[in-house]
Amino acid sequence: MTYDEFQRKNLGSLDKESIDQESNKDSLDWAKEAYERLKQQQEQKKIKQLQELEKSELDSKSITNQINQNQNSNEAKPNLSQESLETNLENQLPKPEPIEVVKEQAVLGDFDNTFTWSAEVLAAQGKNSIDISIEEIDWLGRLRQGLEQTRKDFVTDLLDKFGDDPLTPEVVDDLETLLLRADAGVQATDKILDALRNKLNEEVLGAEEGLRFLKDKLCEILDSPNKSDQVKLLAPKKNKLNIWLLVGVNGVGKTTTLGKLASLASRSGYSSLIAAADTFRAAAVEQLRVWAKRSSVQLIANETSNADPAAVVFDAIGAAKSKNIDLLLVDTAGRLQTKNNLMEELKKIKKIINKLSPDAEVESLLVLDASQGQNGLRQAMAFSQAAELTGVVITKLDGSSRGGVALAVASEAKLPIRFVGAGEGIRDLRPFNSFEFVEALLAKN
Ligand SMILES: Nc1nc2c(ncn2[C@@H]2O[C@H](COP(=O)(O)OP(=O)(O)OP(=O)(O)O)[C@@H](O)[C@H]2O)c(=O)[nH]1
Ligand SMILES: [Mg+2]
Predict the structure, then answer these.
(1) Which among 339, 351, 371 is positioned nearest to 249, based on CA atoms?
(2) Contact 260, 428 (CB under 8 A)
(3) Which terminal residue of the chain, N or C, has fewer Cβ atoms less than 10 Å from its own Cβ?
């Protein structure tokens, strides 16, 4: 998906009229209709790809014949030389799509529980059944799968406790342990429990209503750091240099996230550049080079040992300005000799940016590994001073049982969650959407 498509989806979520229209339709019919349409779409795409392949095979055959004819004829044509024909041939031969790109394309799975759940989540956000894409369905399926571990430890118990009867104060008390166990943090847990208790004092809450109320509260907490600036979807601003720094401790997924962001930016039509400012780890530049190539984005690096990261950023800003780049993505080190050095280095990088490009839109995104739970919150607090953090990316949601940490980050570090990563593939990163996150977190299996 591209930024434009995300934007449309976000607008869709505000479209009250279509929500009402869609909710009047039986949700299973809606899902069936969407599935049939996506299946047809996938078939048509396959046929089109085959036709294109056949056509380019035919074209290359005719060029080969032409070369053979030319070789057999004694008249050498001055402007159709063997060399120019071969270059021609090379240019016209079908360029096979890199295997990984083919592998990374979303494929429509079965019409199963995961599909109907994903369709329901999209419908509830006001999406029309004719507007949804295989990519969206695929991502929601993976997000739900990714949060399965958290759900196992948390939601199954929760739903059992909620049962079918109206909520009791005892159930709310039990919820406290569950939320803390899912790493939601003390502040978020207290907020949720206070709200539920107040609500229970006012009225009787049935199990379904109770669950809806809980989901709304979770969304509210996740969205709370966003309220002040009103920017829901973080995208590069047009006609400006945007500089996004990826910071965080070692191994959390900074470089991978940067690679995925470069791909999203390229697909969305932004010109980007990557600065390899992790000069500490020897293999870091090579790892970035692979990601840069996958998204056809240029890389600025200095491969001499112990190069100064701030100098790399200096060069990269110069290059970005001269090429009119929209987005400069800066990879930073996760580990240095001492933690203090790391913070000092980040401060130095920020200083260079402020000096060279005071008008740039700067985002310092803290990358957090979801499986580190509450440790992530402590990292956020430590980084927020040196790097003046503006947002968070939560990675490795696949296979973590601590997805609740998103709540702690939003309520305690008061940082908006901008993207979530759930896999190692180039498309396994999406702008954060609290509604989808909460639905996936509390999905019934
Ligand atoms: N399963 C999964 N693995 C991920 C995800 N994001 C990153 N990884 C993996 O985590 C490992 C570390 O990722 P990097 O991107 O190198 O992490 P880093 O923060 O740049 O690490 P340093 O540069 O050493 O500080 C790699 O094996 C990645 O493939 C994710 O969302 N899900
Ligand atoms: Mg790295």
Answers:
(1) 339
(2) yes
(3) C
Binding site membership of 391 for ligand 1 (Cβ less than 6 Å) = no
Model confidence over 104-113: pLDDT tens digits? 577 888 898 8
- Residue type at 67? I
Q: Is 170 exposed, middle or buried (0-12, 13-18, 19+ CB in 10 A)?
A: exposed
pTM above 0.90, yes or no: no
- The atom of ligand 1 lying closest to the CA of 334 is 25
Instruction: Give the distance (Å) from ligand 2 centre to CA of residue 246.
Output: 9
Rg of the chain in Å (alpha carbons):
26
Question: Ligand 1, residues 245, 250, 254, 256: which to mutate, most atoms within 8 A of Cβ?
Answer: 256
Stretch 396-413: mean pLDDT = 86
- By CB neighbour count within 10 A (0-12 exposed, 13-18 middle, 19+ buried), where does 128 fall? middle
The two tokens of residue 105 are 């394309």
Tell me, in angstroms, the distance from the centre of ligand 2 to residue 395's CA. 13
Q: What angle do CA 265, 270, 276 make, to 5 degrees?
A: 65
Cα–Cα distance, 423 to 420 (Å, whole number) = 10
Render pLDDT for 218-239 as a digit per residue (tens, 0 to 9).
Answer: 999 999 998 665 567 889 998 8
Q: What span, in angstroms and rounded, lies between the C-alpha atoms of 232 and 417? A: 10
Which amino acid does the sequence have at 244? Answer: W
Report in angstroms the alpha-carbon separations of 55 from 91, 117, 324: 14, 40, 38
Strand order in the sheet with 298-300: 298-300, 272-277, 327-332, 242-247, 361-369, 391-395, 417-421, 429-431
Q: What is the pLDDT of residue 95?
A: 45
Q: Give dist(CA 194, CA 262) in Å, integer.
A: 42
Q: How many whole angstroms from 183 Cα to the centroid of ligand 1? A: 21
Q: How many CA atoms lie within 13 A of 285 on its CB side?
A: 17
Cα-Cα end-to-end distance for the chain: 27
**pLDDT at 194 exceeding the cut of 70:** yes
Atom of ligand 1 nearest to the CA of 367: 19
Whether 22 lines ligand 1, by a CB cut-off of 6 Å, is no
Segment (H or E) for 340: helix 339-356
Token representation of residue 69:
């004819």
* Ligand 1 and 286: CB distance under 6 A: no
Q: Where are the beta strands (DSSP E) in 108-267?
A: 242-247
